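Practice problem: predict the structure.
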Amino acid sequence: MALGDLVVLNTIGCNKDGNNHNMTDGNGSVNGNGTSGNQKAARLSISDEIVSRRAQGDAVFACVASASSNATSSIVYLPPKVYLRDLNHDAFEASALSGPSESGLVSKWRMKDRMKTGSVALVLCLNIGVDPPDVIKISPCARMECWIDPFSMAAGKAIDAIGKALEKQYTRWQPRARYKLAADPPVEEVKKLCNHCRKNAKSERVLFHYNGHGVPKPTANGEIWLFNKVSYTQYIPLSIYELESWLGTPSIYVFDCSAAGMIVNAFIERQEWGSGVSSATAMKDCILLAACGADEILPQSPEFPADIFTSCLTTPIQIALRWFCPRSLLRDSLDPNLIDSIPGKQNERKTLLGELNWIFTAVTDTIAWNVLPRELFQRLFRQDLLVASLFRNFLLAERIMRTANCSPLSFPLLPPTHQHPMWDAWDMAAEICLSQLPTLLNDPNVEFQPSPFFTEQLTAFEVWLEHGSERKKPPEQLPIVLQVLLSQSHRYRALVLLGRFLDMGAWAVDLALSVGIFPYVLKLLQTTAADLRQVLVFIWTKILALDKSCQVDLVKDGGHQYFIRYLDNIQIGGDQRAMAAFVLAVIVDGHRRGQEACIQSGLISVCLQHMQAGPPRDVQPEPQLGPPREVQPEPQLGPSREVQPDPQPGPSREVQPEPQLLQWLCLCLGKLWEGFPEAQLLGLRENASSICSPLLFEPQPEVRAAAVFALGTLLSLGTESLRDGPVYDDYDDDDEKSKAEQEIAKHLLKVLSDASPLVRAELAVALSRFAVGHNKHLKSMAAAYLKPPSNSTLNSLPSLANIRSPTSSYTNASQFMLSSNVISANHGPVLRVGSESNASAREGRVSTSSPLASASIMQGSPSSDGSSQKSESRMSLADAASNGNLRLPRSKSMDNAIYAQCVAAMYALARDPAPWVASLGRQILGTIGVEPVVTKSTRPTGGAGQHRDSSVPSVPTSLPGLARSFSWLDLNSGNLPITFRTPPASPPNRQSYLTGMRRVCSLEFSPHMRTAADAGLADSILGSGGSSSSERGLLPQSTMYNWSCGHYSRPLLCGAPDDEEASVRREERERLTLERIAQCQHSNVSRISDQIAKFPETGCEVGLKAVLLHPFIPIVIVADEKETVRIWNYDEEAQLNVFDNHDGPNRGISKLCLVNELDDSMLLVASSDGSVRVWKDYTQRDKQKLATAWQTTQGHRPGARSVNAVVDWQQLTGFLYASGEISSIMVWDLRIEQLACSIPSSTESCISALSASQVHDRQLVAGSGDGSVRLYDIRTKEMIVCTARPHAHRIVGIDFQPGLDPAKIVSASQAGDIHFLDLRNNNMPYLSIDAHRGSLTALAVHRHAPVIASGSAKQYIKVFSITGEQLNMVRYHNSFMGQRIGPVSCLSFHPYNIQLAAGATDGFVSIYSGENLQAR
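Answer:
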């Protein structure tokens, strides 16, 4: 089982459609997010490594044939999908991830003070032939020194041979060090030796090895013994303090003598006496290894060498096997002398000796990893190769010497390890290896069979992966996995298991990096093995997702080329190549050398090439990577569903790359271009803007946002650094670059009306860069934009560059986005262009002396007002366009029409329904010299108005010095009661807003009064505030990249954990829903008059506009005229929550709906201005979160004062329908957060009522102000099915009749007449009711029960059956026990119960229950 299998199989379920629930198709097979049945079977049968998960369908379909003979329709009672559950809707503005760490993980795994041992001093005080006076030796006793018998030769030769042997043994561990030997030296020679070693080593570590077998034991003061200078007649003490002063730091001491613990104790005591930082540093830089305790002597048994401690430190395999053989099962069959003849080399792992050394290293590393603190492990086992080897061998010395009643000591002190379970694994592996020794020695042609040690340890690690977690003990086999990476035979499996471990979270990556995995996986990038590519890319993805600092190492070793080649391989799946694109994005993120290296390797061309869809090709998966991912086509809504972007050059877009790949290709290019002008020019030369622009219409919001990010980084700030002063005029000299940026700006404006705040936020960031690079032109346009309009200008709204007739409609999303209706009455008038003469105005040109280009307008001085003489000849672009003579004027480097549209877009962003997007928009306006003027709020203080979303920044209701406003432009639908103006010129001593740009402030402003909060820029998404020392930091900062990085920091190999509680709740609600639907369909309602709840003290200061009953919880949701939303539990008569939908001055509720009502529902609040906001956790007091918000309509018909939007939500399809005082019905697809299509309303009047079928797929009915009704089916080519005009007055309410016939509707007009129609059979009503005689205000139709209700302004409600029979009437009674209701303003039925909620203009809300005496 490969990691690739896990990646492929699990990323199938990680697509970006936002539908996390499985679906059941018409044949009954289960499909989850595009996963076919064969793929799911493959997922469950590949290996035991994948835990099979039950494929449970979250949808219950009840397909019933329609009663109509003309058509059939699928009836879906229980919608299978959930919407707006992606991470980008989880309070994005408050939880944007920080991205990879700049300086490593919390544990600081990277050793900043890595060093090596440069010099080694070997001091041997053996005095061969003379025993020290304080040691009584037994007979026979240990005699071997460095495996040499000193009595086998002359004493002089013996000590030289021993010294050379010791040097050779140390050279095995540190071959590049300089070795100096001192045999039986006097004190002066040792001092000279120490000074020489420190001089050679400089700042490197010095090793001092002391063998004191021929001198007395150290003293209690920590003194070691040497000899006198002339002869060996005296023992001269040497204090450890003197020795330390000669050697300096860093250093390591090895004391192989009896009572060596005396030295360690004296050293520790000295450190305790010392004080200050220098003492602590010296203590940390000194390491001591002592052979035994203070009251112990060295073993004298002849089974051990005399220098057993040195043997353990320098020849661990030899001493370990000699010690082990007499204690193993081989003691009777294996000659211990054969151990000296073990074939092979220690650095050749395929030999017996190499295998044993390899296993020993893995075992000792594992023991140290599991018993030592992380910091101590890093310092002793990863900082210095020689120190690491000595401490591994020290663990062996402790094990062996404790059997001889000796306890080796160290400083720093290590915990006991001689009984660690891994020693048993070593014994078993050694026994298996030694069992082959006689055969290997007898027959050199016999091949050595490796030990199963590593295979078994990998299996143990795999078992831990199945059951381990962050809360459990870390896997003790992790260091062994590191060692296994050195072997080709185990490398692939080890990498797969390592990848699975890293996928468990940041803590796992931290552990792996701390154990030392980094240099190994960095070295593996040099391999050409094809089977390792995928898993290596995955491992590097997990590492870089949490530690950005690795980018330096990758570029230094040329590792970026490995990922570029992987990205360029079209035979690899898109999701896998997306990981390579992510790695490359991190490499170039803020790293100039990385950017330069990737440019030289052709990364721009590779990314642009793979952004373009090409002809169909066969994608071959990696070996053993499981079945290829099946590409599922997007569902189509009919011919009008398709969004048609501008034709783009390049190859045919037949096969679209994976969304994840497209997203990271864009982000990678954006990071490559960011802050790198040379890279931007290369991108423009390769036509990057034309290649990226089609991605602005991709179905996935993340892809669209990433494309905006990439295009935005192509926009130059005018200079590499803003600190050099004003440079905007110089920037205009590059006409070619300006034209390219003009095209980029045109492309970016297409997403202004995107439904995803993620996309619009990136658009705001991109426009801020455009605003800086083209500041003076946009300032002049903003000044003209703010001038009071003429009547001709207002009459020409809402179009600027694309004037349309009042009855025109948008046929697709691109037209809607490209339309300049953003310059509407809601946004303010179109900009005005000044001219010197009528002739110049007709030519559409602006001279340098015109008011538009004059300094007074650019500076916003008071003289540049409507009284100016030149302003009399000013005309609007819309006027010119309406005359057919519009030729957009050109400035030096840019078409003024683009500037006009950009300014209008900035104003639109400043009033965006999403608060964080609006904050960005206001900051952009500040960049072009337009300041927000926060007027006093008209809302009373205290009460419900104080409850609002915690994600909305707190903005003061008034600002000092801004009480008097000269502005006329009012963003009526914004989040704040804000107007904008171009202020007068700043005094000369004012601090600049940006270097080279004038700070915007009023004459009443004092410098100390200007704060970030005053400007409404407190949202965290804006980056650094105005107090930052970096001028560039004042610009809005993109969060798309950092937020996207969070995807790879989360687990990728396993699906989201199943929420058992949510699953059980969903199943229970499905069962309950079906039962209640059946009861409603067969109910015989006699009346609906039992008042079960009444809230006369709702706190509403104005009339209610919308009411909604929760289908499963006793909750009623009401909203008043000021868009204050209140949630009540009507069983307990308790208010659960209250909050403001928004803080804008122009308020009015259009509709309340529940999204995902069968799951954790979200509250959709539609405002009368066409904006829609969706709230999460709306029932929790003060914890509501804004999941998404967007503007469903743009502009309105000429003559209309507002949009008067009508909205309805269809859970079956995920469509939101919106219309009003516009010429079409906008269909928004919340699955992709885009405009799906636009339905022409086919009427001169407005749409006054709208209803989408909750049981019939993609059908809706609309009523107009002229009394006509229309049935639409967006699956058909014409979309409109039939039309009728049953009313003579404005339609107040309309809905589908309960039942299965999709053509039967109920409509009511404000005149009081209610009509029942079957639009497919007859255009005239088959039943009419004169219900209220001119006072009908509301209509409600039950979704499943045969009952309707109508409300009147005369304080009564009538309930009818669908046969026209009046069941009862609820009216106002003035008696003590009577019902008291106000003028009815809104009605709503419970979807699955016979309950009716009514809201009144006096703030009262009542809930009535029906009587169902018998079933039919």
